[in-house]
Amino acid sequence: MDTDTTVDLDDSADTGSDIDTTGDTDSETTTDESGGLSRMFVVGGAIAAIGIVMSGLMVYLLDRIGPPGSGELMWIFGYGLTIFALWYLLLRPIDFSSRY
After folding, report:
1. What spans are recorded as compositionally biased (Acidic residues) (predicted)?
2. How far apart are CA 28 and CA 74, in angstroms?
3. Residue 9 CB: number of other CB atoms within 10 A?
4. Fewer Cβ within 10 Å of end Cβ, the chain: N or C?
5. What is the DSSP string of 34-68?
6. pLDDT single digits (tens) 14-33
7. Residue 20's pLDDT is what?
8. DSSP secondary-structure letter at 88?
């Protein structure tokens, strides 16, 4: 990641921030001021909660009033899609090959 860092040594206009960091920022790394969580983890949590709740409700309804076997298909499709969406948004962008 290429960033430019400048240091303000002029004391005449002190605003409380002496270091100005500029560069490329990704939406994945911006933080929420209230909780300090990254946006992607908040979105991931929302997808997980909605995917689990909606899949569970659909499985329950299809088991009760749907044709035989439809609850099992909904279980596979609903939870599988939720896991795929979480992998696609949270795990796929991570570069595990870089060294620190």
Report:
1. 1-13, 21-31
2. 31
3. 6
4. C
5. TT--BHHHHHHHHHHHHHHHHHHHHHHHHHHHS-T
6. 555 455 455 544 545 555 45
7. 47
8. I
Apex 33 CA angle, 29 and 37, nearest 5: 50
Give buried/exposed letters for 35-56 (b at 16+ CB in 10 A, else e). Answer: eeebebeebbeebeeebeeebe
Instruction: List the structure tokens of 57.
Output: 């409700």
pLDDT tens profile 49-99: 999 999 999 999 999 998 988 999 999 999 999 999 999 988 888 778 877
SS3 (DSSP) at 11: coil
Single-letter code of the amino acid located at 57: L
Quote the distance between the C-alpha of residue 88 and its chain's center.
10
Q: ∠ at Cα 41 (31, 39), nearest 5°?
A: 35
